[in-house]
Amino acid sequence: MSDKAALSRLPDGWTGGAPDADAFHAMADAALAALPDIFKPHIRGVVVAIEEFADDETLASLGIEHPYDLTGLYEGRPLTERSIDMSGGMPDRVTLYRIPILVEWIEGGERLDWLVRHVLIHEIGHHFGFSDDDMHALEDMA
């Protein structure tokens, strides 16, 4: 692979170090902006957070032994499970785990912005109560 081809696989603004939380936020914002317009009103209140790793309590609650095995997490109540009398709760949240995503990026060779997009759309799919097939269809639409 030529140096030029390798550079085309790096995220915008990459300066040689591991992309930081701000770079991840920029990639997540771009992925959300690319979603079909019909979905956008339903994700306005969803908070997107970037953390280095999931904490031990989160990993234990999911039955995950190694922190590199969790790249993203949706916390909230899917739209399909809500009722009109539910209010006052915390906003739904999608957390992207930077280090596990970077490890997957290094090991898999996929473009980092595409990998962030994939993880984010998968977690947003949980917000909608989508099946894995539905999440793949949403990803194809974005």
User: What is the number of E strands?
Assistant: 3
Radius of gyration: 16 Å
Quickly give the structural class.
mainly alpha
Total domains, how many? 1
- Do you know the CATH topology? Zincin-like
Strand count, sense and barrel status of the largest sheet are: 3 strands, mixed
The share of residues in helices is 40-55%
The global form is globular
How is the topology of this model organized?
Blueprint: H1 3-7, H2 21-33, E1 47-51, H3 56-62, E2 72-75, E3 93-97, H4 98-108, H5 112-128, H6 132-141
Parallel strand pairs: 1-3
Antiparallel strand pairs: 2-3
How does this structure look, described?
Keywords: Hydrolase, Metalloprotease, Protease. GO terms for molecular function: metallopeptidase activity. Pfam families: Zincin_1. InterPro entries: Zincin_1, Zincin_1_sf. It is a single chain. By secondary structure, the protein is mainly α. The protein has a single domain (about 15-75, about 90-140), classed as Zincin-like (2-Layer Sandwich), CATH 3.30.2010.20. It contains six helices and three strands; from the N terminus they run ααβαββααα. The protein has helices at about 5, 20-35, 55-60, 100-110, 110-130, 130-140, and strands spanning about 45-50, 70-75, 95. The chain has a three-stranded mixed beta sheet with strand order 1-3-2. α5 packs across α6 (about 130-140). The longest helix has 17 residues, at about 110-130. The radius of gyration is 16 Å and the shape is globular.
